[in-house]
Amino acid sequence: MRASNPVACSDGRLACLLLLPSLLFLITFTYWPIARAAYLSFHDAMLGDPLVIFVGWENYARLLEDELFWRVLGNTAWYVLITVPVSVTVALLLAVGLNAAFKGVSLARSAFFYPTMIPSVAAGMVWVYLYAPGYGPINQWLEWLGAGPMAWLSDRRFALWALMLLSIWKFSGYLMLILLAGLQLIPKDLYEAARLDGVSAWHQLRHITMPLLSPMLYFVFIVAVLHSYQVFDYVYVMTHGGPADSTNVLTFYIYQNAFQYQDLGYASTLATVLLLFMSLLIALIGMTFGRTIHYFGDH
Q: Are 191 and 184 in contact (CB under 8 A)?
């Protein structure tokens, strides 16, 4: 009969004890709200009313017939499809460019990362000024170029694009920092050997950098998807979902139903659907892009 190892048992108990605060935090602020939202999605519940009535799938049936929900879902999908690949591409180009050693590289890295440090509300207010029709710098530049001013935030053709531009500007620096860390883990010997063999910079990027950076790219892609689905601050500060719901996204629509219309049941249904969409998209990315990842040292 094998004797138990008291040291291993002690280490296991210590690990559980150290993890307990984080686990309690996750249960309180993540798992319990998810379970509560899923529960309320099957009930008629109003904000501030203790009476909760079971209605089964009625909220989900209402969601399928809600034309505004489908418009909001389309806005959200379009926002994700544009901001995620553009943000990752911009971050990759910045990381590759700033991975070189040149005078002032630290200042350049700080400058591109700085937008990430600005609070979202403050960034939104700054860009409201930049987009202002009469005195905003962007429209003044357009007039100088002869293009004429544009109603960026009050024209449904441009409002969502204006929010996308802000999101890409603010979040690309964060993704750049992650990719830059990944680039600096790639052995320099590989690039030196490639240069000695006459390999061009493009082929070095394609056959050395991209394969060895794929784990970081995968992580960055997941983070970008999660960030784009959670957009709320910019919408709240800059457009309130307008004009004509052209910038209304799922997170803001959940807020409207929960706190403006005080319909917790329907808001919980929307939140549950948002979680399902995010989970399915992350799973799809994992089954496609995740299988092409090359870890350095794998054979």
A: no
